[in-house]
Amino acid sequence: MTPGVITLADGRLLSWHEFGDPDGSPVLYTAGTPVSGLGGACYDQTARAAGLRWISPDKPGYGASGHQRRRSLASWSDDLLALASHLGLGRFALAGESGGAPFTLAAAHRLGDRVSVVALIAAGGPMGPAERVGMTSSARVMNWFARNAPALNTFRVAAMRRALVSPKNLQRAIHDVGVDRSAEVMSVLASYVK
């Protein structure tokens, strides 16, 4: 599928991909880190079955979306509002996965009157020592960097992104994640947006 692209008020490009049912109830999905809007493809079949139009934008600096120097949680809601307006969406659901969850919550807060429901998928919160028990060493290192030296995480995220370019590595990562719960997520979303 060819992504759609619009020019935002500040001159940046915002691209997006659509999956699921083209005539279904709209859901603006924010993928986690380091995933582009193409990550929405993993929900294509279940969104279609649930009657959801799964709209998956590329975050700033991902895919064909332009880099945003001073990106913030709040600025993402402006991008989503521009996309929703461009697509002629009145009300819509929001879904955010993993690192996309905080941006989704901020957008829900700022766009409250336009949002019908919010779904968070594999969202995390503050982590203390008890929450870190059982984490892989790689996840512990990223968690430490996030708390103590966030700028250093950019190197780890870039390495993850390069690794996932390989289809073999991507399949292994998907397999390692475990159980696919997308049908449950779609069922819950569909019950609220219709």
UniProtKB/TrEMBL annotation:
GO molecular function, one term: catalytic activity
Matching InterPro entries: AB_hydrolase, AB_hydrolase_1, AB_hydrolase_fold
AB hydrolase-1 domain: residues covered: 51-145
Classification via Pfam families: Abhydrolase_1
Protein name (database record): AB hydrolase-1 domain-containing protein
Classification lineage: Bacteria, Bacillati, Actinomycetota, Actinomycetes, Micromonosporales
